[in-house]
Write a structure and sequence with these properties.
mainly alpha, single chain, Helicase, Ruva Protein, domain 3, two-stranded antiparallel ribbon
Length: about 160
């Protein structure tokens, strides 16, 4: 679902890792959540609402990563070999639901999608030699997409 980058530990953290994992001692493990609690949290996240507005935005964003898509901006056509598939959209929405639930909200916001975009998309978009020659990373391409892909129009309701 996510591609999370974790840097190397500091020298003292690395020493702690080495010490904790090479001794013949068993660490004390304590239960944090019960199986029922985990299932309830999964249900809670799954119940977070996703509007058609968010679905349209996610579809537009994911499709814009594909250089042969009608919705792809020129810079994607020039810098990307292949883009994200439908699972990327599913994971953007699931990640958005998780953020909304952790924030105590009942529905996904555009900002939730933007927050999870890089970890969801960074390993699903492949930049080409042109991008590398220009010093553009996959993250740069995704950030530019987030700036340039417009949100859908909000439908106007008449009285």
């Amino acid at each position: 679902m996510f591609n999370i980058r974790v840097d190397y530990p500091s020298a003292s953290e690395e020493e702690m890792i080495l010490s904790a994992t090479t001794r013949n001692e068993k660490p004390e493990v304590r239960k944090v959540l019960s199986a029922r609690s985990i299932l309830n949290l999964q249900k809670l996240v799954g119940s977070v609402a996703v509007s058609e507005y968010i679905i349209k935005y996610v579809a537009r964003l994911v499709r814009a990563t594909r250089p042969k898509s009608d919705g792809a901006p020129d810079f994607v056509r020039e810098l990307v070999d292949w883009g994200a598939g439908p699972r990327a959209g599913q994971f953007l929405i699931h990640g958005g639901k998780a953020l909304a639930a952790m924030d105590g909200r009942f529905s996904v916001a555009i900002e939730d999608i933007r927050k999870v975009a890089i970890p969801v998309l960074r390993h699903r978009v492949s930049t080409n030699f042109q991008a590398q020659a220009e010093g553009m990373t996959t993250e740069d391409v995704i950030e530019r997409l987030l700036r340039e892909i417009p949100t859908p129009d909000i439908p106007k309701f008449s009285n």
